[in-house]
Amino acid sequence: MEAVYLDHAATSPVHPQVVEAMLPVYHEVFGNPSSVHNFGRKARRILDEARRTVAKSINASEKEIVFTSGGTEADNLAIIGTARANQEKGKHIITTSIEHHATLHAVEYLESEGFEVTYLPVDESGAVRIEDVESSLRDDTILVSIMMVNNETGVIQPIDEIADLLKNHQAHFHSDIVQAYGLMKWDVQQVPVDFLAVSGHKINGPKGIGFLYIREGSTIESLQYGGEQERKRRAGTENVPAIKGLQTAIALIEDEREQYKENYLRYKQAFLQVLDENKVDYSVNGYKEKCVESIVNISFPGMNVEALLTNFDLSGIAASSGSACTAGSVEPSHVLTAMFGKGDPRTTNSIRFSFGLANNEDNVKDAAEKVSQIIHRLSD
Fold first, then answer.
1. Does residue 325 have an active-site annotation?
2. From start to end of 156-273, where are the E strands?
3. What's the mean pLDDT when you consider all of the chain?
4. What's the pLDDT score for residue 331?
5. Which of 21-46 are b and which e, b meaning 16 or more Cβ less than 10 Å from the residue's Cβ?
6. Contacts made by residues 182-186, CB under 8 angstroms, sequence distance 24+
7. pLDDT tens digits, residue range 88-145?
8. What are the coiled-coil residue ranges (predicted)?
9. 78: how many CB neighbours lie within 10 A of its CB?
10. Counted domains in the chain
11. Which are the contacts of 17, defined by CB distance < 8 A and separation ≥ 6?
12. Residue 121 and residue 342 in contact, taking contact as beta carbons nearer than 8 Å
């Protein structure tokens, strides 16, 4: 039985060229980038080249890029670091009820420090409404944090319009673009977002590496102490091999982005077509027209997340759910709960399928056939 990986939104396989690029660094470049001798300078050159590649990918300046251990750290640095550095201007933060927990838990922590947080709702399409952002803005709002693409539904949020709304407001604007970065071209000169968080392992790079874009002039407080690396914003010796891997992964997506998008859309359409051909009862959660190509979140009426995921896994299909599964119980997806309300069956019968490098049209269709068989069997 060939296993089929349909969980690329959770993590993606490392591209072979990324591995090839990292290996010589492990073997030959062990110097500390902060050291002034030749060994350190070799490491520094790799660091500088990677930073240029990262900056160019979003049309930023190299000095606006801070390497982190991944998206979670980047989100935490942007949110907590900005709130603490700007609290004399106010202690009000705006975010949404569908954010990744890297954002939600960060703002919950800030609430314990005396900050006030407004959690914006979303409609059934899974998108935040501009009018809700506007009506929630206050004179003491210092930070707005709204993700670009939701990790459970793939729905694209109106980041351009929100950035335009905030142009003449003191609030900094942070966006987690972890799910968007590999598929959506972004130019920070065109859209005035102040902070962007990216993770390497979602774009076929290594785990444990990411970056935070910090617009020049933004006020932010470091969360780590011990060194002056990353312009004193993130202490700690840089992970040079992983940074090289991130650089390579970015170069690959820059070259292949349109082909990837075309492939993933084809896989999604093929997957749904097989479900249709097998007369599976399902519905897609979220705004179909404003969704990234790589993610589809599907509700299977009458089904249960735990039973589905267990049967999928036994059949060699890797997928996931926003629901937190524990022995004998299911905690509903916070994203789907925000979209449909508490108690709605879709919050506990929905599965996220996400496509990527491990897929081709044949294995996607094979997986859809197995999913169809499982749904029919569990319905009997």
1. yes
2. 172-176, 195-199, 210-214
3. 96
4. 81
5. bbeebeeebebebeeeeeebebbbeb
6. 182/253, 182/257, 182/260, 183/257, 183/260, 183/261, 183/264, 183/292, 183/293, 183/294, 184/148, 184/149, 184/156, 184/292, 185/257, 186/57, 186/58, 186/59
7. 999 999 999 999 999 999 999 999 999 999 999 999 999 999 999 999 999 999 999 9
8. 243-270
9. 30
10. 2
11. 248, 252
12. no
In CATH, what number is assigned to the domain containing residue 52? 3.40.640.10
Q: CB of 221 within 8 A of CB of 110?
A: no
Distance from the Cα of residue 233 to its chain's centroid:
22
> Is residue 90 domain-shared with residue 217, that is, in the same domain?
yes
Residue with tokens 């604007």: 173
Whole-angstrom distance, CA of residue 297 vs CA of residue 377: 21
- Same-domain status, 102 and 233: yes
Tell me, yes or no, whether 166 and 283 share the same domain: no
The residue from 235, 251, 325, 358 that is catalytic is 325
The backbone torsions φ and ψ at residue 102, rounded to the nearest 5 degrees and listed phi first, read: -60, -35
CATH code for the domain of 276: 3.90.1150.10
Among 252, 274, 293, the domain boundary falls at: 252
Q: Does 281 have pLDDT greater than 80?
A: yes
The answer to whether residues 191 and 86 belong to one domain is yes
Three-state DSSP state, 51: helix
What is the domain extent for residue 370? 4-12+256-379
Nearest to 58 by CA among 215, 286, 169, 287: 215
User: pTM of the full predicted structure?
Assistant: 0.95
pLDDT at 147 > cutoff 80: yes
Query: Same domain for 242 and 143?
Result: yes
**Could you tell me if 119 and 337 are in contact, meaning their C-beta atoms sit under 8 angstroms apart?**
no
Q: Indicate whether 202 and 310 sit together in one domain.
A: no
Q: 252, 279, 302: which is the final residue of a domain?
A: 252
SS3 of 245, please?
helix
The dihedral region occupied by 302, where left means phi > 0, alpha psi between -120 and 50, and beta the remainder, is: left
